[in-house]
Amino acid sequence: MSQNGTAARLGTEPVGRLLMQYAVPAIIAMTASSLYNMVDSIFIGHGVGAMAISGLAVTFPLMNLAAAFGSLVGVGAATIVSVKLGQKDYRTARQVLGNVVTLNVVIGVLFTIVTLAFLDPILYFFGASEATISYARDYMVIILLGNVVTHSYLGLNSVLRSAGHPQKAMFATIMTVVINTLLDPLFIFTFDMGIEGAAVATVLAQAVALIWLFRLFSNKNELIYLQRGIYRLQKHLVSGIISIGMAPFLMNLAACFIVILINKGLKQYDGDLAIGAFGIVNRISFLFVMIVMGLNQGMQPIAGYNYGARQYHRVNHVMKLTVIAATVVTTAGFLIGELVPELAVKAFTSDATLVDMGARGMRIVVMFFPIIGFQMVTSNFFQSIGMAKKAIILSLSRQVMILIPCLVILPLFWGADGVWFSMPISDAVASVIAAVMLYRQFKFFKQHPAPQL
């Protein structure tokens, strides 16, 4: 998007400077996105009650499932746009933009219809009880009705970032956080809408941001913009988008199934409040995960462009810098989770039992946090350069090959502790697999250097 030089500088400016320029806005945006989810939890926890936190946590698998379809389109399209800009194929980049709009509408509508038709059975399957089902249902009905808005907003924002406008993508995310934070207390307390008010605030905030994104992409003076003839789905583009987006799709799909297993295990051995404790721990730890995802988003257009331009030395360099930064972030999460978990959990609830459960769970979950940044960056790296199969292997190694078996087996011997300890164990093993795959890829780059441009 923008002028030709905006994309071209991805292949010429110093890699460290580019990573800062792209990653900092993305980090701010992703941190804001994490705070966006935390704000809902905090207002619900203090404004509705401890059991409402558990009800909200029950919806996480369904939210992950919705995110899976959103990432299938958004991430796949963003990667293709970056590579096509590196190849100077601007016409195809515009067609990808149009296909993103159409795919998000089609998938969003179908997802909403199917899930609303079977919402109660789905929520019970995800771990809801008679005490939490009403909270989960009230929240998800509104979220699902706004699902097309959510998908479209996330998809267009991903393309905007990859097309050379990380600051504007950051602004869109911050916009949703600010609006949501202002509307949450209004709908929850002033209008006395409870958990439904939090859902309404979420959808309205995303709708405002989506309108702004459509306005940006309607500017015909830009390199990539919305125009006639680009909305018809093209088989080769859809196939490419889905192929590359399959890695984050499967990762989110696995996350959905994993949260189901976690919810069911905690409910069986510790009751409904344990699900709420996991919900809080998940929100806190996700803040650091989202910062790493911001680093990944900053790396993605740089790695994608230079891979498309066959400048492997720059691909190598941006990967190494991103791993270092990610490790610093996850180590900070480790220290907070081990040293002051009670303080973090109390931000969400004043219920003493829930605070104790959450603090203990957090200490366990962050046990191997210093190394998961490396694993996350490695998976995103392969995705960024279009190596979908390797990205899928890395994405599934932690969640399907390791974590799911642990969640099935360990609780049989350790009860609720088996559920909690499954998470750090899978982090450690998956990081080893990532290290081996990355070493082999770097070895290839070293043996096949492209001319320094």
Automatic annotation (TrEMBL):
Keywords: Antibiotic resistance, Cell membrane, Membrane, Transmembrane, Transmembrane helix, Transport. It comes from Candidatus Phocaeicola excrementipullorum. The lineage of its organism: Bacteria, Pseudomonadati, Bacteroidota, Bacteroidia, Bacteroidales. The chain crosses the membrane at residues 19-36, 43-60, 66-85, 97-119, 139-157, 169-191, 197-217, 237-262, 274-296, 317-337, 357-379, 391-414, 420-439. One of its GO terms (cellular component) is plasma membrane. GO terms for biological process: response to antibiotic. Belongs to the multi antimicrobial extrusion (MATE) (TC 2.A.66.1) family. MepA subfamily. It is found in: Cell membrane. It comes from the Bacteria. Pfam families: MatE. It is a multi-pass membrane protein. This is Multidrug export protein MepA. PANTHER family: MULTIDRUG EXPORT PROTEIN MEPA, SPORULATION PROTEIN YKVU. CDD domains: MATE_MepA_like. One of its GO terms (molecular function) is xenobiotic transmembrane transporter activity.
